[in-house]
Amino acid sequence: LQSKLPNIGATIFTTMSQLAQEHGAINLSQGFPDFGCAPELLDLANQAMQNGYNQYAPSSGLPLLRQQISKKTEQLYGYTANADTQITVTSGATEALFAAISAVVRPGDEVIILEPSYDSYVPAIDLNGGVPVFVPLTFPEFAIDWQKVKDKLSSKTRLLILNSPHNPSGAILTPSDLQFLKELTQEHPFLIISDEVYEHMVFDGKKHLSLLTEPELAERAFVISSFGKTFHTTGWKVGYCIAPPALTTEFRKIHQYLTFCTATPFQQAIGQYLENPEPYLTLPQFYQQKRDLFAELLKPSKFELIPCAGTYFQLARYNQISDLPEVEFAQWLTKEAGVAVIPVSVFYHDQTDHRLVRFCFAKKEETLQAAAERLCKL
Ligand code: PMP
Ligand code: GLN
C-alpha cells in the first residue's frame, strides 16, 4: 500500500508519553493536566447522562452550548457570533482544524505556516493536496516577521494559520501583529485559521488578542478553541469553530461527515458550566502560579528558560547540560533523568534545532517539585 502520509509516524505526543510510561518517567511531555477538573463539572456530566442526553446531538452542537459560546465571545471579544449560523461544536480543536482546512484548501493551494507549528496542520493540508509554505518565527522571541510572511504570499495563497497563545513557545500576538495582518489582507484575499485553544492562558495581566476583536479579520477567519484546555478535560474532546456564515456552511459540510457531532452529555455539561464565567476568568492566575513555581524550582538547574507569556508550556535551553540534538536529548532525559519532555525540532519541517525542549507545567505542585528535583541534578 502506498501511504498517503509517507513521512508521518505516531505523533511526538504519543511517542514521548509511551516512552515516559516504559521508563517510569515523570511525564511533562504531552500537554494535559495531571489533576482533575472541577467536581461541579463532573456532576453536570453525570446528571446529563442520567437526564437522557445520550443520543446524537444536532450536528452543529447543542443549542445551549452554542448560545453560551456566543455569550462568552461577545463578553470577552465584543464580537457577536450568531449561534445558529456561525458556531459549530466539534470533537476537540483537532477536528475543527481538519474540517476548516478541508473546507477551503484545494489541490495546489498554498497555506502559510509559521514555524515551529502544532503538528496537526501540515498533514491536514497534505491530505487536501495543499502546499504548506513555511515561515520561521524569530528566535528566541518567536515573534512573527511580517515581511517574511509578505514575501511568501502569492496568487496561490489560500490560507494563513495562526496560533496564539502559541504552542510550543508560549508567545502571544501583539496589537501590531493584528495591524500588520490587516494591512496584508487588504492586499491579498487569503483566509485565516486562528488556533486559540490557549485563549484563557495569558499571563502577567496581558489580554488575549482574539482575531474576533477585529471585524475585518473576523470576516475571513475560522477561530478555533477547545474546552479540553480551559476546563482540564482534554479527554472529553469538546471544541468549537466560529466563522462567518458562508465559511460555516462549508465547514459544517465536512464536520457532518467527519464525526457528525461530539459527545452529547459533555456538550450539555459544558453548556451549563459556562453559565459561570469565573472558572475561565481565573485560569490565567491559576496557570501563572504554576509557571512561576516551575521557573523558581528550576532556578538552581542548568536549564535556561525562554520567557513564557501564555499556554501551559515552558521552553528551556539545555546547552549547558548536553550537546545532543533535541530528539536524542529528550529521549535521554526521559530514560536517564526520568523526566519526559517534547523536542521542539519536531515542530519544524526541516527539524531546525535550537537545542530547546518543551515542558508542560499543567501538573500538580508535587509533580513539578519531583521533576525539578531530578532536573536540578543534571
Ligand atoms: N491546537 C493546539 C495549538 C494544541 O496545542 C492542541 C492540543 N494540545 C490542539 C490544537 C488540539 O486540541 P484538542 O485537544 O481540543 O483537539
Ligand atoms: N496538544 C497537546 C500538546 O501539544 C497534545 C495533543 C495530542 O496528544 N494530540 O502536547
TrEMBL record:
Molecular function in Gene Ontology: transaminase activity
Q: What Gene3D superfamilies has UniProt attached to this entry? A: Aspartate Aminotransferase, domain 1, Type I PLP-dependent aspartate aminotransferase-like (Major domain)
Which UniProt keywords are present, listed alphabetically? Aminotransferase, Pyridoxal phosphate, Transferase
Domain (Aminotransferase class I/classII large) spans: 26-375
Cofactor(s) of this protein: pyridoxal 5'-phosphate
Tell me which domain of life the UniProt entry assigns to the organism this sequence originates from.
Bacteria
Protein name per UniProt: Pyridoxal phosphate-dependent aminotransferase
